[in-house]
Amino acid sequence: MTVEPVGFRDFVVARSPRFLHTAYLLTGDAHLAKDLVQTSLARTWPQWDRIREGNPEAYVKTVMVRLATSWWRRKWRGEVPTEVLPEPRAGVAGAGDTTAGMPSATDQVDDHLMLAAALRRLPPGQRRVVLLRYLEDLPVSQVATLLGLSEGTVKSQAARGLATLREVLADE
After folding, report:
1. Low-confidence stretches of the chain (pLDDT beneath 70)
2. Entry pTM
3. Which one, 14, 18, 19, 146, has least CB within 10 Å?
4. How far are the Cα atoms of 57, 99, 102, 155, 171 from residue 93, in angstroms, in the given order?
């Protein structure tokens, strides 16, 4: 019988929603995101006594990024058939407004889906940097440490990723 490390369950319960959000942005797929979080936490569990006093959240995020990278390298990236095509977004400004100047919940969901789709179009390195730097709000130095890159590489990947996102989102 294996004994659960002290505090691990509380950590998992408290941080899992945030890890799931990050994993979804890394993978672009809800099911893969759940698998990524579960696998990352399973790999963290044996190390818990060693990392719990430090920064276990950063440790889990590092595991997630590395796992997502290894999964991406192995993944077949051909066409994926779909039965129903998504509806195009309405081009009328303010069409979904429920109050003056406030977007509706539908518009917010559409924006999130559009951003997630745009992130998936970035090369994996740029996507990881943009995700960690801007969506996770980590400083350049911490992103560099998590990804094993120089700070200059993080800055250039972030700049390229943001430029690509602007182009993609402008075309949408």
Report:
1. 1-4, 73-81, 85-103, 172
2. 0.52
3. 14
4. 40, 13, 11, 34, 16
